[in-house]
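Suppose you are handed only these lines of text.
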Amino acid sequence: MLDNKIETMDRKDLEELQLKKLQATVTRLYNGVTFYKNHMDAMGLKPEHIKSLKDVANLPFTTKEDFRDTYPYGLCSVPKSEVVRIQSSSGTTGKPIVSCYTKNDLDLWANSVARGLSGIGVTNDDTVQVAFGYGLFTGGLGLHDGAQKLGCTVIPTSSGNTRKQLMLMMDLKTTTLVCTPSYALIIAETAKELGIDLTQSSLKYGMFGAEPWSTNMRTDIENKLGIKAYNIYGLTEMQGPGVAVECTAKAGMHIWEDYFYPEIINPETGEVLPEGSVGELVLTNIAREAQPVLRYRTHDITSITYEKCACGRTHARIAQINGRSDDMIKVKGVKVFPSQIESILLTVPGVEPQYQIVVDRRDGFVCDNIEVRVEVGEAAFTDRMAGLVEIKNKLNAALQSALGIKVDIKLVEPHTISRFEGKSKRIVNRSELGE
Ligand code: ADP
Ligand code: ZN
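From them, the structure of the protein bound to adenosine-5'-diphosphate can be written out as follows.
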């Protein structure tokens, strides 16, 4: 472990530490950020009212809209001279979200990533290829600083240029690949085309995140790359990747609780839910200087456990994130996440992990009907027609039994669905496809 004392800290001590940090953060925000002062005043809340961790539930929520309304520096609590970096979210609509960091914030960010890498077995003997995009997106620089902090040899390839990526991977004997799971699949596909057998290469570990991926996708990536693959979670608003990271127990991602205070809420009522319930993850920065955020509504759906992990760490774990509440669609009354569909598709032999969910008409998240478009391996296409019919029947049965509804399935030829070097987009409107 990178920081044995903190990572295995007795929960009582950890909670005491959290309370102290939380109180300091709330005081700092009340005195330094008009946005929070106004909200707290309107609620009749003073920093000294925060007497226990449970009192977090009385603090105001912060939303993506609040970031936009206060853009660019309205949530920043330090003088501009102390801000040494600004990152921004890949945000798809409206004004971007900016995140400010002091030197110390960058150090804590690097720590949280380094703890994660160290937790899966990566050491300073490892060569880490960072194939997350570099730039405003937090993936590249976040993983870069974390791996460097651990003393690894870092190769900052960024995403894209996959052939060169593979050449460097082979020549420099990369042991650890970090990128989005979708890009890991592109790397695997390109390697196959070039006749490179990655299972025979130096690659040992993969740390993938920035988008939802299913357990079946994990197995697929592990088999194709010959590695052990782990999940990393984070978001620009709170810091970037490394907020939570999986350990070798593969039993959820440890949230670094000395930096973040997590809650799970009912997304409709805002009420805090008990341990184990599935709901929306809400996070509070308790160790950040430049831009601590109170009760950020992530829209990410998960659950949390405080049970000590098999790895010895005491920090809480969140379950794999199936999607954001805004990715969820409701078809014929049933709530469906793309990653659920992904998981089912990958149980059927002959199906490739490349799919799209095509929606005809959509009213908010309610859709009349969806079409699941999925690629089928070369073999199925060159085989008899009967092979395709059999795959389609199996998919129909598997989707219907898992989701309880019938969806349209369209099998398509290899390499016909768009690939993503960064985050993938699984749900598309038919009109966007020009159909
Ligand atoms: P954007 O909001 O524009 O996508 P970010 O890059 O900050 O910007 O993305 C953060 C979001 O990415 C998270 O809120 C979450 O929805 C998703 N995400 C990040 N890591 C994971 C992961 N390991 N599993 C599932 N979703 C993830
Ligand atoms: Zn663990």
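What can we learn from it? The pocket of zinc ion (ligand 2) is lined by residues 247, 249, 254, 309, 311, 313 (CB under 6 Å). The chain has a mean pLDDT of 94.
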